[in-house]
Amino acid sequence: MAIKGARQGARVVKKVVDKVKHSPFLKTYIPAAQAAPAPPLGPQLGQRQIQIAAFCKEFNEKTSNIKPGIPLPTRIKVNPDRSFDIQINNPPMTYFLLQAAGTKKGAMKPGEEVAGKVSLKHVYEIALIKSKDPTFENVSLQNVCKSIITAAHSCGIEVVPRLEEDSYRQFLEERKDIVKQQEQQLEEIRQAKMLRL
To answer: Where does the Large ribosomal subunit protein uL11 C-terminal domain start and stop, copy by copy (predicted)?
Structure first.
């Protein structure tokens, strides 16, 4: 008797799981000109009944003029007739900051170490680009600059009034050695954890 009740309970749970409704809005980062039906994008689109191949084709066409691989914040709205609207924004602040600083990674310990440096001119140029995003639509350029400086500090990037090319090149060379040491330490920690298992 108990087994029969358990089976019926499982059926009820299964029916409830099938009725999960997903939001008609999807916010995600997609690499420019590299949208593919593979995970994680494909399943997210499939859950919302979007034709994956059509979406990937349209997205890749819209971003064909952008350097492939740049992460683009994308907002997707699904209409009741299973059509969709795509809103593609500029790359995130951290992408621009890391590019301007000439580094691939931010600091492992922001506030304690400096991963790179950008000048105020870099901050201003990034602010001009980011001010066109919908999130900064009614925000003054000065406040956009302040938010970029805050993002730079959270990545471990120092904002300086002016950068000198020779001294900064030397700084980047020293930084490469520090990053190699940090990666070796992380690898040793990973190996130690694997040995414990």
So the answer is: 90-159
